[in-house]
KCMB2 protein
Amino acid sequence: MLGKKLVTAQKRGETRALCLGLGMVACSMMMYFFIGITIVPFYTKSVWTTETVCKVLKVSIKDKVFCPNSKGSEDEEIFPYPCLQVWVNLTASGQEVMLYQTEDTLERNPKCSYVPDKLENSKEVKAQIETIASNFKKYQTFPCYYDPGGTQINVILSRLYPAKGLLFAFLWPTLMFTGGCLIIVLVKISQYVSVLSAWQ
């Protein structure tokens, strides 16, 4: 009787472990799919792939411009902000080009190097942009990214999804997938050993 209870408990444990392993594999596949349709297209679409050194030539703050947020362009969603323009010398080609914060900055407003998040206090936005401008004047040389193909003559300060970020995004589903497969393999080995010992 005790032996039957132990066998039943063992089978229940194996079933739960197998379900856990299958669940981990399924979740990891869903994460792979989500990353594949969200992050990977932005990474592959970016043409600013080569890192070089940029040297600041001119930093200026123009009059206020209007820029809609990412949700739409309705009147209540448009806010004014000072337009920061940073011109740099591209070491790779020696050209004088305009610097943008990220790829998204160029899409939102190609006239400005930096597009702030929507803030209610205009003084905070102005102070933030002035701080960024002073930092560019203080640190004249810094790494930046340019388009080696020449389709985009401007440069960006940082990529939204760099190669390291993409690898880090794939790290967690890979670990989950490996753990799930390992659990399934261990359960199958345990079942095989149990059947083999029972047959002997």
Q: What stands out?
A: Strands lie at 50-68, 78-90, 96-100, 141-146, 155-156. Residues 50-161 form one domain. The mean pLDDT is 82.
